[in-house]
Amino acid sequence: MQSPSPSDALRAAFTDSDLGLRRGVVDIAAASDAWARTFADVHTVLAATAPASVIAIEHIGSTAVRGLDAKAILDIGIAVHPGTLLSSLDGWLTGLGMLVRGDGNGIRPDRMYGYELEPMVRLANVHVVEEGSEDIRRYRAFRDHLRANPTDRDAYGALKRALATRHPEDRLAYIDGKADFITARRGDGS
To answer: pTM higher than 0.90, yes or no?
Structure first.
C-alpha cells in the first residue's frame, strides 16, 4: 500500500482536531487534548518534508498550553537559520496546501501562512521567524510562562473570554486587548 502524500497526511492530521474558526470571528473554545495530538501529527509531516533551513518546528500560542481555552486555531512556529529569506519557504508550505498570508507588520512580526480545509475557516497559522530572533524568543517565553504558571494561564483564559465577548467580530481589538498581559509575562518589558 502506498503512503499518503505529505499534503494528504497533513489533511488527515486535522481530522477530529477540534480546530477551525471562521476568519474574522473571535470565539474561544474549551481547551482540548486533541490540539496536542494534532500538533504531533502535523509536526511529523512538517519535519519529514522541511528544507534544510528549518531548525525548529514548535507548537506555540494558546493551543500549546494544556488547560487553556483558546481560539480553535493551531499556532505553529517555524524557526529558520539566521539570514534565511523567510519567503524561501513558500514553495514547501504552499505545496502542503498552506496559504501565504504575508510578511510581518504592525500586528505580527513574522511571515505567516494559514491552513484551511474549508475556505475562510482557519485551522492553523504558521509563523516563520529566524532562530535566535526576539520574535521566536517572545513566542517561546510566553508559552513557557503560561505552562509553568497556572494562575496566569487561568487569568489569561478569562481575559480572552471577556475580550471575545466584547469583540466577537473584531480580531484586532481582541489582539490589542491582550497585549499588556502578554508583554508583562514574556520577560522583555516591551
So the answer is: yes
